[in-house]
Design brief:
Blueprint: H1 2-12, H2 28-40, E1 49-53, E2 56-60, H3 64-68, H4 111-128
Antiparallel strand pairs: 1-2
Protein name: Cytochrome P450
Keywords: Heme, Iron, Metal-binding, Monooxygenase, Oxidoreductase
Family: Belongs to the cytochrome P450 family.
Length: about 160
């Protein structure tokens, strides 16, 4: 994923200046990485929405992780596949995982800020860093945990 994103950046962005928002349309793979990060492991697996109808409070709790990991929409959902968000070879790209921000009037008002700031962070990191697995003091590669905590907010489970 990182090598493909770096190749896209090298081909479409000048090496003398960092990526900026003007480069956004030229970098579909970076956008696909962002979409897959949102879909693959949403930070908040359950949304919250409170609505009032005829003086009754109705609490809606959509299970975001179930929507974004539905096998009909996203085949093999536990595998990180950014390329599924890129159209090509006569196939339609997967829908953007906007469900992570909520729905209707209960949508997160800062979702555009999050999308743009995360996109520029990913583009900047890909342009300036080469990320690899950590090593211990003896030079052995440390494997990362792919287990996440349950509950309202998710994070990597530290062993």
């Amino acid at each position: 994923v990182q090598a493909k994103a770096q190749a896209e950046l090298d081909a479409k962005v000048s090496a003398t200046c960092p990526p900026n928002f003007d480069n956004h349309p030229q970098l579909p793979y970076i956008e696909a990485i962002l979409s897959e990060v949102l879909r693959w492991n949403p930070v908040m697996p359950m949304g919250i929405c409170l609505e009032v109808h005829y003086l009754f409070f109705i609490q809606v709790l959509p299970i975001i992780v179930a929507i974004l990991q539905d096998e009909e929409d996203y085949p093999n959902p536990i595998v990180f596949k950014a390329k599924q968000f890129i159209p090509g070879d006569g196939k339609e790209p997967q829908p953007h995982p906007l469900a992570v921000f909520g729905f209707g009037r209960c949508i997160c008002p800062g979702h555009y800020l999050m999308l743009n700031s995360t996109w520029i962070a990913i583009a900047s990191m890909v342009a300036t860093l080469s990320i690899s697995k950590a090593m211990d003091s003896e030079g052995s590669i440390l494997e990362l945990s792919d287990t996440f905590t349950g509950g309202f907010l998710r994070s990597v489970l530290l062993c």
